[in-house]
Amino acid sequence: MGIDIRVEDERGGLIRELLDPKSLLPRLLPPQDNTDSFCLRFIDRYGDTYFNQIQMPLLLIELKAAVRSCSDADAKAHGEAAVSLVASAVDRVHTYVRFVGD
């Protein structure tokens, strides 16, 4: 199982979602010891990871860079959908992005 991405309101209510049944998102993530990563390295592959409005712009920058550098066509397409989803949550009051690991 992959890492699903959810845009949620402040009560955890679902606004939008991107499922990852083929486990494509992990192919875009850097190793956890990559100190050049400010957000992506902290996504827990087996648990939940939340990002708030302060963190989302950096998350979006890193995610776009990961997609640009990806050579796997399926992972790249999934990453582009993830970028679109995260971008839809930026600057929305009381809105969070949650990565739901295995």
- DSSP strand count: 4
| Fraction in beta strands | 15-25%
Residue share in helix: 25-40%
Element order: H for helix, E for strand? EEEHHE
Largest sheet: 4 strands, antiparallel
Quickly give the structural class.
Answer: alpha+beta
Query: Order of strands across the widest beta sheet?
Result: 2-1-4-3
Distance between the termini: 6 Å
Q: Indicate the low-confidence ranges by residue numbers.
A: none
What's the number of helices?
2
Mean pLDDT: 97
Shape: globular
Q: Number of folding domains?
A: 1
Report the radius of gyration as a whole number of Å. 12 Å
Describe what is shown at a glance.
This protein is of the alpha+beta class and 102 residues long. The chain has helices at 56-69, 73-89, and strands spanning 4-9, 14-18, 48-51, 95-100.
Task: Give the secondary structure arrangement, pairings included.
Blueprint lengths: L3 E6 L4 E5 L29 E4 L4 H14 L3 H17 L5 E6 L2
Antiparallel strand pairs: 1-2, 1-4, 3-4
What descriptive keywords fit this protein?
102 residues; alpha+beta; four-stranded antiparallel beta sheet; 2 helices; 4 strands
